[in-house]
Amino acid sequence: MLKRKSCTICKGKLDHIKTIKDVPVYMGVSDSSDNEYLFEDMIFTNCNTCGTLQLENLIDPEILYQKNHNIEIVGSLWNEHYDSFIKFITKHNQLDRVLEIGDPSGKIASRFDDYNSWTLVDQNPIDGVDANPKIFVINGWVDDVEIDGSYDNIIMSHMFEHLYDPITTIKKLKENNIVYGTNVFLSIPNFTHLYDKKDLPPAGLHFEHNIFLNVSIVRYIMKSLGFDFVSIQYYKKHSIFMKFKYTGQIVKSNLKKKLIQLSVSDIICKYEMLIEEINKKDGSGFIIYGAHFPAQFMFALGLDKEKFSYVMDASTSKQNKYLYGYGLKVIGPQEIKSWKNTPKILCQMGVYTEEIKKLLYEIREDIEFLC
Ligand SMILES: [Zn+2]
């Protein structure tokens, strides 16, 4: 485990806000129910100087990304995200040499062919991702690998917020791979929306998303490193696309301090109350939807595991495996079709909740949702 000792943006002092004890360190599934699970305290802190919310305990990338859980594109929201992001990238822009950080399966590269080379950097690239002779793979965490050559376009889709020290990472890319005019395209989660929704994970943070990034913070980081801000596009309330161009002109500005520590505690408190209600419900054999962070957070916050028999997930790569940390078996949505009893399902999947509930009602109209 690594400890963040000062603010990753401005090196200011970090103030403690809230701790969730014993959260599973890996967001996904294990092959067997008797796996030895690792847990770590999730400590929310606020920078005393710039106000940025960030986690103190950081998990070694080798453990955090031990197996990939980001191979398939699940759901229309993500499909459209990639389509829109490609349009944003290719608008007024020809791709020659592309460096993409954090994509195990070439989800963007595989959607079009109008480039000369595409280098993927990922901890867990899937077999065969470089079958296309124009695709090259560098296997490892971005901070630990050597990346050669310069690139005219660098892409990070839902990656920037996973970095532990984005300023140092971008500085290293600047020294080795970025030239005057290199474009950097980012797609980041809309943290402000996630914070406003008051869903899990609190303010959009978990061990992977370890810094609360909004447009101001990202612009501040990139400008302080010599990148011009070119354009921005919102993809629904899901993601924010941003384009920067390297000019070497460094602009130092001040971040406005935002104090949001109280509300992060409020989000956690809201779920603790909800969990208390669910724990009081009679019966057992409940299903929790999503072999992912919401289920893990709910159990870490005290949801009674004994009442639950299964985890449900639409991803076939997770089915018949076990939720990391809690050992519950993962079933597919179709499995409830033949159940004699009414399935009782807890579905707390943030922005995806309504889409998932609609799909489940198509399988069975009599589902009882626990909240
Ligand atoms: Zn700071």
What features would you describe in this structure?
The chain has 371 residues and is α/β, with parallel strands linked by helices. The protein folds into 3 domains: 2-64, no CATH class; 76-246, Vaccinia Virus protein VP39 (Rossmann fold, 3-Layer(aba) Sandwich), CATH 3.40.50.150; 261-369, 3-Layer(aba) Sandwich (Rossmann fold). The protein is 23% helix and 27% strand. The protein has 8 helices and 19 strands. It has helices at residues 61-64, 76-90, 166-176, 191-197, 215-224, 261-280, 293-300, 353-363; strands at 2-3, 14-24, 29-30, 39-47, 53-55, 57-58, 97-101, 117-122, 135-139, 151-157, 178-189, 227-235, 239-246, 286-289, 308-312, 322-323, 329-331, 344-346, 368-369. The strands form 5 sheets. Strands 9-8-7-10-11-13-12 form a 7-stranded mixed β-sheet, sandwiched between helices. It has a 5-stranded parallel β-sheet with strand order 17-15-14-18-19, with no helix packed on it. Strands 2-4-5 form a 3-stranded antiparallel β-sheet. It is globular and about 65 Å long. The structure holds zinc ion. Residues 7, 9-10, 12, 47, 49-50, 52 line the site of zinc ion.
Can you say what the CATH homologous superfamily of the largest domain is? Answer: Vaccinia Virus protein VP39
Task: Give the number of DSSP strands.
Answer: 19
The general outline is globular
Largest sheet: 7 strands, mixed
Q: Give the low-confidence spans.
A: none
Percent helix range:
10-25%
CATH class of the largest domain: Alpha Beta
Distance between the termini: 35 Å
Bound molecules: zinc ion
CATH topology of the largest domain: Rossmann fold
Give me the CATH architecture of the largest domain, please: 3-Layer(aba) Sandwich
Number of helices in the DSSP assignment: 8
DSSP strand content? 25-35%
SSE order, one letter for each helix or strand: EEEEEEHHEEEEHEHHEEHEHEEEEHE
Strand order of the largest sheet: 9-8-7-10-11-13-12
Report Rg.
21 Å
